[in-house]
Amino acid sequence: MNSRFEQLARQAGVWTPALRQRILATGRVRDIAEVPGHLRALFTTAHEIPPEQHIRLQAACQAYVDNAVSKTINLPADATVDQMTNVYRRAFELGCKGITVYRHGTRAGQVLTPVSPTGLCPDCLTALEFSEGASICRSCGFSTGT
């Protein structure tokens, strides 16, 4: 949990243990109506930023360095081959020297993983299974390592 978000949510009078659990379950605040709009906009997560914006930011930074500057372009678990291809093509068109692409849920123990106190997948709400040190959704591929 971002400590600055918690501080601002307390100041706005919306911070509760239940709100904390909801945020931890989804990993984002965008869809939580009781969080004021300015906080939802300010605390956007990497997974909520469209790939085009990730690429444009990367291209802007890389234009001023001799080596590559990389940041991860996060794609949803259901990203298609065509979407992946478009990311690489767009990065090439903008002159990127290199990119890193990650499709959500393709690796156990990934860094940006919501906590699921309910035992349900935060992406598709299917029951999670625990196997080999990770919670795994057999429906959509979401996983979280321990």
Describe, in plain words, how this protein is organized in 3D.
By secondary structure, this protein is an alpha+beta fold. It folds into 3 domains: 1-44; 47-103, no CATH class; 107-146, no CATH class. Helix content is 34%, strand content 12%. It is built from 5 helices and 5 strands. The protein has helices at 3-11, 17-26, 37-42, 51-62, 81-93, and strands at 72-75, 100-103, 129-131, 134-136, 143-145. The strands form 2 sheets. It has a 3-stranded antiparallel β-sheet with strand order 3-4-5, with no helix packed on it. A two-stranded parallel ribbon has the order 1-2. α5 links the parallel β1 (72-75) and β2. The longest helix has 13 residues, at 81-93. The radius of gyration is 17 Å and the shape is flat. The mean pLDDT is 82.
* Number of individual domains: 3
Strand order of the largest sheet: 3-4-5
Q: What portion of residues belong to β-strands? A: 5-15%
Helix content: 25-40%
- Main beta sheet, described? 3 strands, antiparallel
Shape: flat
Keywords:
146 residues, alpha+beta, 5 helices, 12% strand
Any chance you could write out the topology, listing elements then pairs?
Elements (H helix, E strand, L loop, with lengths): L2 H9 L5 H10 L10 H6 L8 H12 L9 E4 L5 H13 L6 E4 L25 E3 L2 E3 L6 E3 L1
Parallel strand pairs: 1-2
Antiparallel strand pairs: 3-4, 4-5
